[in-house]
Specification:
three-stranded antiparallel beta sheet, mainly alpha, binds carboxymethyl coenzyme *A, 6 strands, single chain, globular
Length: 428
């Protein structure tokens, strides 16, 4: 947050001791107090459950202004990127720091295609998952398994890292589509070199030996846009997990696998699946009674929360949700889909925005509120929604992991605590 006169240090008085702590600012004027010397100089630590006030790094990747509802990747506004780019351009931007030119775009696209197949032995893994396995469990397990198929790579060499990045972005998409095919008992569809990244995913999901799936440009564009909206979100829960695991020098595959698990949680990326399940429950069980669900969400004795509403950082409308909402309307109109859940979602949003409980806490629809409705219209099953969030987020996780590796201030992640258990007891 900008201040009229920028402070260069902060004074902290604890008891009789006063210390000076350095203050610094980011390129968008966000200020931070550097407390690295705090414990050494005072014996105290900071207490910040959920890390709401804790900066863990300096970063060049993503900027969010939660008060104004702004999101930039590498300085570009999310609206511009969603409107004008393909997902792989944004993936390139996040990982390499600049948008690709035409030659770089073609070369990256080709590279992704050349590494899209899975090792034949990995195909057999799918045989032993039950049909009802959640695809996020499969995705995470397969992500870490990649490290055992490509163990020879050294983490530090640039070419090795580029190869790992390509493999992860390309193969996890193949794994995602295979896990869907496995869940419905259909044969797996191989990626094709003549198709681009998003087209390939849709083809692997929906082509069958008896039905030659025809790619719809509306769905291809929508998928590109949705993946772009998800591509990074600075130090969120899953990115922090990826970095925490990586800080112990675990390899990138293992770090991404852990990030996938974190993302699965319903308070994080898992919310998109839960939004649709919530809307279905309201429609079927509660006969569309929105008032009832709003009252439940406000009741402090009920753990229920409105899914797809609220955000740790956004205290105004999530800019990704704005794009996702408009896209949902456009895509459904173009595909000629009439989904009663869309009307219900709009009514629920209106009720949220008009309610003092949500207003006073700055709770607005987030990215997950409308994305599932678009995926549904595209024929993507509910349990694949979080998988798509993960596919979109892979470049962001990778960019954050790589940046952490280069950080001169980087150390193993290891928070402290205040112990409140019993003091030493005699053992008798
Ligand atoms: N429904 C009802 N009340 C809510 C909700 C909600 N969805 N979200 C927050 N609140 C209330 C909360 O009870 C608290 O009230 P009080 O001040 O009276 O105790 C207040 O708002 C602040 O909430 P908080 O839990 O301190 O906020 P947080 O920053 O720790 O949590 C959140 C953020 C996203 C986990 C939370 O808003 C939530 O659970 N939302 C629903 C799940 C969801 O949609 N998650 C997707 C987030 S966007 C995708 C991603 O990047 O992960």
């Amino acid at each position: 947050m900008a201040t009229a006169k920028k402070a260069t240090s902060a004074k902290l008085k604890i008891g009789t001791k006063t210390i000076d702590l350095p203050v610094f600012y980011g390129s968008e004027n966000e200020g931070a107090i550097d407390i690295q010397s705090l414990r050494k100089e005072t014996g105290f630590i900071t207490y910040d459950p959920g890390f709401g006030n804790t900066g863990c790094c300096k970063s060049d990747i993503t900027f969010i202004d939660g008060e104004k509802g702004i999101l930039h990747y590498r300085g570009y506004d999310i609206n511009d990127l969603a409107e004008h780019c393909e997902f792989i351009d944004v993936a390139y931007l996040l990982v390499h720091g600049k948008l690709p030119n035409e030659k770089q775009h073609l070369s990256f696209s080709k590279h992704l295609n050349h590494h899209s197949m899975l090792h034949e032995d990995m195909h057999h893994f799918f045989d032993n998952y039950p049909d009802h396995a959640h695809p996020m469990a499969t995705l995470s397990a397969m992500a870490v398994s990649l490290s055992s198929f490509y163990p020879e790579l050294e983490q530090t060499k640039k070419e090795s890292i580029d190869m790992m990045v390509t493999r992860l972005i390309s193969k996890l998409r193949t794994i995602a589509a295979f896990s869907y095919k496995k869940s419905i008992g259909h044969p797996m569809v191989q990626p094709r070199h003549d198709l681009k990244y998003c087209e390939n995913f849709l083809n692997m999901m929906f082509w069958t030996p008896v039905n030659d799936y025809k790619l719809d440009p509306v769905c291809v564009k929508a998928l590109n846009k949705l993946l772009i909206l998800h591509a990074d979100h600075e130090q969120n829960c899953s990115a922090s997990v990826v970095k925490m695991v990586g800080s112990a020098e675990a390899n990138l595959y293992a770090s991404i696998s852990a990030g996938i698990c974190a993302l699965w949680g319903p308070l994080h990326g898992g919310a998109n699946q839960h939004v649709i399940e919530m809307l279905e429950t309201i429609l079927k069980r509660d006969k569309g009674n929105i008032k009832k669900v709003i009252e439940r969400a406000k009741d402090k004795n009920d753990p229920f929360r409105l899914m797809g509403v609220g955000h740790r950082v956004y205290k105004s409308y999530d800019p990704r949700a704005k794009v996702a909402k408009q896209m949902c309307k456009d895509v459904l109109a173009k595909l000629g889909v009439n989904d009663p859940l869309v009307d219900l979602a709009q009514k629920l949003e209106e009720a949220v925005l008009a309610d003092d409980y949500f207003q006073s806490r700055n709770l607005y629809p987030n990215i997950d509120f409308y994305t599932g409705l678009t995926y549904r219209a595209m024929g993507i099953p509910t349990n694949m929604f979080t998988v798509l969030f993960a596919i979109g987020r892979i470049p962001g996780w990778i960019a954050q992991w790589l940046e952490m590796k280069e950080d001169p201030d980087g150390r193993i992640g290891r928070p402290r605590q205040i112990y409140t258990g019993p003091t030493l007891r005699s053992f008798e």
